[in-house]
Design goal:
This protein has 678 residues and is of the alpha+beta class. The protein has three domains: 30 residues, no CATH class; 195 residues, Penicillin binding protein transpeptidase fold, CATH 1.10.3810; 342 residues, DD-peptidase/beta-lactamase superfamily (Beta-lactamase, 3-Layer(aba) Sandwich), CATH 3.40.710.10. It is 41% helix and 10% strand. The chain has 27 helices and 19 strands. A five-stranded antiparallel sheet has the order 5-4-19-18-17, sandwiched between helices. Strands 2-1-3-15 form a four-stranded mixed sheet. A two-stranded parallel sheet has the order 6-7. Helix 1 runs parallel beside helix 5. The radius of gyration is 33 Å and the shape is elongated.
Length: 678
């Protein structure tokens, strides 16, 4: 037999007969251990799937090749038979190289004086598919895997013979079904079954299986979606006849299947965040944040490029923390303030204290690359990609208060707050007095006077908190903000925080850019009694083998003493119209939200940037924290104005109420008397 093969190959390639015989002899005794690693341990590219928190609602998929590897028992028997009939009817009789087919093909090709027939077995085709897509090979080596050369054919024979001695026929068939390309962007039988018929491969009928099996030879030209439908049906008939010759089906079964009209039920899986279903394209912002998070995780590679490749080829099953109901509530509230066509936006984030899990990210925009004001892929909620965020005003007073409490100053620390307050820091321009920075209160008649942390926070008294910042040093307030996860994305803010924090007297008034997500998570740290958790968009991640990935676990640490956080929470009851544990609140800038909360314990803070350029509100319970910032992301000079502030406050409060519907009311733990009164 080897003499026959050598003669055939000699006639085709004019290679020395002795060399061919020697090569094929080596192939007959070659070791499985000599094979490329991808042939021994196949790792075809698989799509990763991103789900909402129920583990069932698909957000999107990520793939270079739309493929999901499935076991052979998940493929209908008729599909297995059709594949063998279509590509290698003697699959179960040969040992990887079918010498009878080699001779037949040679004779036919000599008669036609051109290549009319091939002699590749299904095993050899599997080898070719692996080698042409092996990421460990060079582009030249991958190209050589499909080149019309004798060397390539001999290599396929050698590898096929070695595989057949190590793997069962069923194992080879399973691998082939999962790696083959079936046209229309479908790689592997699972993707093909869903692409053409919107069903898993276990449910394929005889006619459907024969159609899919017939596509492998010319997947792009013969596929019935974008190619030649008549050719696809002709190939279906060919496969059915081959199944009869293989005795897999009867002639009657074949004729009935041939008579069936082509009933496609096509579906195309989404790819990337812009592929999120149109009715839920607001989820695209969450998806975008997930990708940003994934790209920062060393568990998926040492570089961003490696991590992206892992996402698009690794076949991960990712269940996010996105709660569709909370997301819908947040989007509804955002749209109630500004519509899709408004130049202004209300991005909102909802975070779970104690885990950092991000439950919702909504904004009055479509996540889309299409033209128009209502469409964008800019990360307006979490920042990044050039988006530095927005000034959040007096919400930053929380960081000064926490720093002061951590220094041992109690909540009843008093100061007779004037307007303006001349500070020790140099200043110039309208906000200066005699060369010193001197801020004023927005509503002197209501804000000026003797204040404590309770009343100063409740009424948002600028000069009280600038004075408090003077007592402890602005650098401690800046450090506290960073400790709670505030990231300075604007270059000027980052430089000021690093090199000039000691003189940053206006920091407590929220002049640095931040994002709703950073702000919500910082306040979630307070709600969790000082336990900071990195923002986390996932509940679980399984790799293609079903193993859990540790990167999905919360990453938390205690960054402030629990009593300090409880004291700050106690003061944060004042702005929202509720009462502190010690009855020290006497007015709040968002008192109207108390009516929305219907008695649920709640804390929070309003914030207005200079000249009401932005309006912010962040609120929290022990179970949930949410923040929203009204702004024009494209034109900071378009000031949203103070009139929108009550609506922003209500939007956050209503989102929290909707998110916690049916959940028990949980109260905050009061601070110690020592930290309350000294």
């Amino acid at each position: 037999m080897f003499a026959v093969v050598a003669g055939v190959v000699l006639a085709v390639s004019a290679l020395p007969a002795g060399a061919v015989v020697a090569y094929l002899t080596r192939s007959a005794t070659g070791s499985f251990d000599d094979l490329p690693s991808d042939l021994k341990i196949p790792a075809p590219a698989q799509a990763s799937r991103l789900y909402a928190d129920d583990g069932k609602t698909l957000i999107t998929t990520f793939y270079d090749e739309n493929r999901r590897v499935v076991p052979l028992d998940a493929v209908a028997q008729v599909m297995q038979q059709a594949m063998v009939a279509a590509e290698d009817i003697r699959f179960y009789q040969h040992g990887g190289v079918d010498l009878r087919s080699v001779v037949r093909a040679f004779v036919a090709n000599v008669k036609q004086d051109q290549v009319e027939q091939g002699a590749s077995t299904l095993t050899m085709q599997y080898v070719r598919n692996v080698l042409k897509s092996d990421p460990n090979l060079t582009p030249e080596q991958r190209q050589a895997a499909t080149a019309e050369t004798v060397e390539r054919k001999l290599r396929e024979m050698r590898y096929a013979a070695a595989l057949e001695r190590k793997l069962s026929k069923q194992e080879i068939l399973e691998r082939y079904l999962n790696i083959a390309y079936f046209g229309a962007g479908a790689y592997g039988i699972d993707a093909a079954s869903r692409r053409y018929f919107s069903k898993p491969p276990s449910q394929l009928t005889l006619a459907e299986a024969a159609l899919i099996a017939g596509l492998v030879q010319s997947p792009d030209t013969d596929n019935p979606i974008s190619g030649d439908r008549a050719a696809a049906l002709a190939r279906r008939s060919y496969v059915l006849d081959a199944m009869v010759r293989m005795k897999a089906i009867s002639q009657q079964q074949a004729e009935r299947a041939k008579a069936e009209p082509l009933r496609l039920r096509t579906s195309e899986p989404p790819n990337d965040c812009v592929g999120v279903a149109r009715k839920h394209n607001d989820w695209g912002f969450y998806c975008d944040y997930f990708v940003q998070w994934w790209n920062s995780q060393p568990a998926f590679g040492s570089t961003v490029a490696e991590r992206q490749s892992a996402l698009r080829r690794g076949g991960y099953t990712i269940i996010t923390a996105l709660d569709p109901d909370i997301q819908a509530a947040a989007l509804e509230q955002s749209l109630d303030v500004y519509g899709y066509r408004s130049a202004r936006t209300l991005p909102m984030a909802v975070v779970q204290p104690g885990t950092g899990r991000v439950l919702a990210m909504a904004v009055n925009r479509h996540y889309s690359l299409a033209d128009g004001r209502s469409n964008t892929v800019n990360q307006l909620i979490a920042g990044g990609g050039g988006v530095t965020g927005y000034q959040a005003g007096s919400t930053f007073k929380m960081f000064t208060m926490l720093a002061a409490l951590a220094e041992g100053k109690p909540l009843n620390t008093g100061f007779n707050a004037p307007s303006p307050l001349v500070t020790k820091w140099p200043g110039s321009g309208p906000g200066s007095c005699g060369g010193h920075y001197c801020p004023s209160n927005d509503n002197p008649s209501w804000m000026d006077g003797y204040r404590t942390m309770w009343t100063g926070f409740g009424r948002s008294v600028n000069t009280y908190f600038v004075w408090l910042e003077e007592q402890i040093g602005p650098e401690k307030a800046v450090a506290m903000a960073q400790r709670l996860g505030i990231t300075f994305r604007a270059k000027s803010d980052a430089e000021r925080a690093e090199k000039g924090a000691q003189g940053w007297g206006s920091f407590t008034l929220g002049v640095a850019d931040t994002t709703p997500l950073d702000l919500a998570n910082a306040y979630a740290t307070v709600a969790a009694e000082g336990r900071y958790c990195r923002p986390l968009p996932v509940l679980s991640i399984l790799d293609s083998s079903g193993r859990a990935v540790a990167a999905a676990e919360p990453s938390c640490q205690q960054v402030i003493a629990p009593d300090v956080a409880r004291a700050a929470t106690d003061a944060a009851r004042c702005p929202v119209g509720q009462q502190s544990a010690y009855g020290k609140c006497d007015g709040g800038t968002a008192a109207a939200v108390a009516g929305i909360l219907d008695g649920r314990p709640f804390a929070g803070k309003t914030g207005s940037a200079e000249n009401n350029a932005t309006e912010t509100f962040v609120g929290f319970t022990p179970q949930l924290a949410a923040a929203a910032i009204a702004a024009n992301p494209d034109d900071p000079g378009d000031h949203v104005g103070s009139a929108v502030s009550p609506r922003v406050n209500a939007a956050v409060a209503r989102t929290v109420v909707a998110a916690l519907a049916g959940q028990p009311y949980q109260d905050f733990t009061p601070p110690s008397r020592e930290l309350a009164f000294g």
